[in-house]
């Protein structure tokens, strides 16, 4: 995968990704959507290090908080 960031996200739709945030947390889930601001939708989502392995149905992450997205 090479190219512009939004092209990479387009290729990664419906695949598992890890989103690392500014607060040093990471969210794991399937990339269900994104927009031009790199706001992302993960479905379902698991928070790294959560004590009870809680899984959320859908999580929307504001692009301003994203440090990296690993495919």
Automatic annotation (TrEMBL):
- Organism for this UniProt entry: Halobaculum magnesiiphilum
As recorded in UniProt, coiled-coil segments are none
What GO cellular component term, any one, is given? Answer: ribonucleoprotein complex
| Superkingdom of origin | Archaea
InterPro entries of this UniProt entry? LSM_dom_sf, Sm, Sm_dom_euk/arc
Listed SMART domains: Sm
Domain named Sm is located at 4-71
An example molecular function term from Gene Ontology annotations: RNA binding
State if Ribonucleoprotein is listed as a keyword. Answer: yes
Q: Name one Pfam family in it.
A: LSM
What keywords are annotated for this sequence in UniProt?
Ribonucleoprotein
Question: This chain belongs to which protein, by name?
Answer: Like-Sm ribonucleoprotein core
